[in-house]
Amino acid sequence: MTPPLPPDWKCPLRVGFLFPHACLRTTPVGCPDCQSGQIADPYAVCGRYGYSRYDYYGDDYFFDYGPEYGIDMGTPGAPMDFTEADGADMVQTGDQFENDMTES
Amino acid sequence: MWLIYALGGGWGHLTRAIALARIAQRERPVRVLTNSPYAGMAAGSVDIRAVETRTEATRAIQECRPACLIVDTFPRGIGGELAGILGTLSARKVLVHRDLNPRYVAVARLREFVAANYDLVLAPGAGEGSQLGDLPAAVETNRWLVRSADEIPDRGRVRESLRLGPREDHCVLVCCSGKPEELEWYGAVVGELQRLGAAVRCVAAVRPAQCPEECWVRYWPAMELFGCASVVVGGAGYNTVAECLAWEVPLVARAWPRQYDRQELRARNAGGRVTLVRAPEEAARAAMELMRDRSPGAPGFVNGAVEAVARIGC
Amino acid sequence: MAVDVNRLRKECVYEASTAIEAVADDLAQIEGLAAEWHATRKRLFLAGTIAIAVGCIGLAVYVPVGLVLIAIGISLFVWTKSSPKAVANNLGRCELVKSVADMLAHDTAPGTPATIRLAFNPKRDLLSEDVLPMRRNGKQRLYKASWLTVETSLCDGTTFTQTIDDLIRQRSFTNPRGKSKTKTRTHSLLGMRLAYPQKVYGDVTPLNARMQKEIQLPAASFVRGIEVTGRIVKVKALVTQYGDLAQTSSMLALGVYRMLNLSRELEARKRAQSQAGGAQ
Fold first, then answer.
1. So what's the pLDDT on residue C276?
2. Are the Cβ atoms of B39 and C128 closer than 8 angstroms?
3. What is the ipTM of this complex?
């Protein structure tokens, strides 16, 4: 049996479409974002058309603006995932060219 | 016949094509293909055919069977439509190599394509041909201008066209080009200049909303009026920059974002003669600082389009 | 009720400042009114037709009655004008506004008002008129028609404003058979302005170039301009397929916010760095 929520409870989960913010609902029952508590991170799973991994930024995003903003790469075992930002530079599809006859 | 493929938005491709066509048609028929919305205003004595779609463009080329096909800026056509037909044409093929986004050059493998399909690459001015200007078929000319120095109307006619008062020798000339939605910016510049007390005229196909009727001048080509301009405010597209450099009139330029053109680079490469701005207030202040008296003598610039016609030959 | 029915009927404009959650109800009401007016127009048109037909027959039998019936028929036709077609013809705009409101509702505090102006038959401003070369009597006119403004405050302190203007190109000419032809093409210019709080996001200006690369749009929509200052982000997109408007609106906002969110993260790291430096 689920224990009752404290009287001043506010939902701490992240919700939102454009940017994350706290849900602050007083009960998860009937919540369309977390489906009554079924979804652990409603903000992350929200559908956003072609923006997969909307919430994720590779290291290059931070190093562009100063290496001091990056993660500490000296730590052994630091993750070295390729991101879609890397992929976009490696795979030059050029889909955006030769589409618009009014460009210049 | 020479056929000039000049598809692309705004004024730039069309103006450059007309600059070439006017010289070339003294000795052979020339036709220009365009999808510019301003074709009606600029046509004059040049044979202009309006096309809208890729299919219409390729059909017009195949029906014309030109002796020479001159393609402005986009080696594969602005929609990629020329890639399939260039190999089938027996015409001499010439590329007018205006500046191009290097990412497009890389992604579309334009170096190999141009080397394989074009007989001549003309860079219309220093700095324009940085991407393909080292190809064996490439030649650089002076900037192409839609009027040669001896075609500029006399000062009296220019003053009349600008509706300058008896005590006004010069004015700030705001030259609108580019996209319709950019007109608002130019209108705001006119408003700011008026607020600062400048004599200002706005040359535009359509009057910007903030431009009073008495300041608006509907005239083409604007470069005929530069003799009475103390400073020009405009975009940093090819023609505006080339015309201001030719006239040696200071240019206050807004570099507009374009998919293929690098306006900011062009403006920076022009040295101190082009001042880059963003906000209308900034443009107006820069114009007030740069205003200078101009000598009333006849202009002496060289029109690279004449050399270009000679280079193309045939 | 937020819908000013008289203004909607006379000017074909819906203008309201209402809680964003209530926008859908207003739009549903407009859709209902449009259906009602459509039914009324049909009934009046049918009645008018019958009255005129019977009146014409009546003229042969008894002229005054025939004339009265014809006059009634004409009045009924005139009366159909009081139920404007423009709303029903542009009901897709209601769907679009609902979609925008739904998107915004995720990131606004409950009860936050949104100001909406939706025009179903907006005035067309002539932008240019030119001769159409190579066509007999060819003329080309470019118009602008502004039909949507939406503004609201998001819960991060940003003021969000969206506008849609239609750019209409009308070409008229006489074809080789002597008939007058008119061809119209419409594209929409979607503008977005976000006045963001610097204390949350810092100065986003350094991310301008990145933002241009990050924004993704449907294939037939194109970014037309991006302007970033220390307080405002302005973006514009050209939408060539009407059906893509809602998706373009969402994708444009997402592209901008992906960079705003990055800026917020950078600011947070900057603050953490300076606090760590101060502690040392």
1. 61
2. no
3. 0.83
